[in-house]
Amino acid sequence: DAIEKGGYEHFMLKEIFEQPRSIMDSMRGRLIADQNHLMMGGIREYANKFVAADRILIVACGTSWHAGLVAEYLFEEFARIPVEVEYASEFRYRNPVIRETDIVIAISQSGETADTLAAIELAKSKGATIFGVCNVVGSSIARASDAGAYTHAGPEIGVASTKAFTAQVTVLTLMALMVAEKRGTIENSKLRQLMVEMENIPAKVEQALKLDAQIQHIADVFKDVPNFLYLGRGYNFPVALEGALKLKEISYIHAEGYPAAEMKHGPIALIDENMPVVVIATKDSSYEKIVSNIQEVKARKGRIIAIVTEGDDVIPEMAEFVIEVPAADEALVPLVSVIPLQLLSYHIAVMRGCNVDQPRNLAKSVTVE
Length: 369
Ligand code: G6P
Hints:
Its main location: cytoplasm. By secondary structure, the chain is of the alpha/beta class.
């Protein structure tokens, strides 16, 4: 056991720290920026279907569903294909419209989640084309798919998904860019820039992991609170959901993720001097907007923990704690901004004496309904 954990106290921590490597593994052979090479073998044959697709449906559960939300933003922004992201359990039982021209992307770490498998069987029976994005090679969902791409993150043991999430986002990003290139919906210069930036992501994740000691300190301050709120906008909205899910899964602290602007339609009522609010506020096109959301939280005395881009000199004036991550293109930022949230939930859970790798009531893969 100790050997398998590679010197780390828990599998989850080991898997968090493996991410520079696992993200690289997800890109291996698929992206070589200076050779202008961007190719996912599993998609090549279906490139024409993607070019012609007038809709993509994404089905998944849990953390994989959050990766699906990031993919929605990517495919819509760059490939200009409308995307619906569905909880597999809802999709399979709600009589959805599925057409033969639809492309269904099923995202699953284990490849064994019963609802996701049933959702793709349903879509298949209506003639849709199924792409699996799975981590486990030869898994049921991978086998039931017409084509797909493995995430190559390596075995994930911790029940709370970490490196599988970043691997899914990596693969989905490459897919979206490849489809965008084929459809001619992305400027060449933008595509090149994103390809180069993708190659730099593992180094940025490595840098974000150096925040561990600082995050441990923040965890110590907040470990006994009953509630947490996570806010983000744009590409960081799914990251807010994922940060909240990580915390509740392993620390049993109630946590909610919300789109920052939607806060005023509910969660703002909960904010007082006891409420920690994690705001993912990296420099992007919605930066000014999220700064005003931070002001709204501050006006109600919420305790702000902000994830910001290195060198930000505005938010540190407003937040109680500031965690600086390296700058990245906003479309790629989830791969970096999720790292401190994984570490925060890990340290809080450890300090609360929780079973981090095997939280109560949860299973690594949910193979029954
Ligand atoms: C369970 C796991 C989660 C995972 C979800 C979907 O709830 O605890 O970590 O995100 O299932 O699993 P999948 O294997 O389909 O990605």
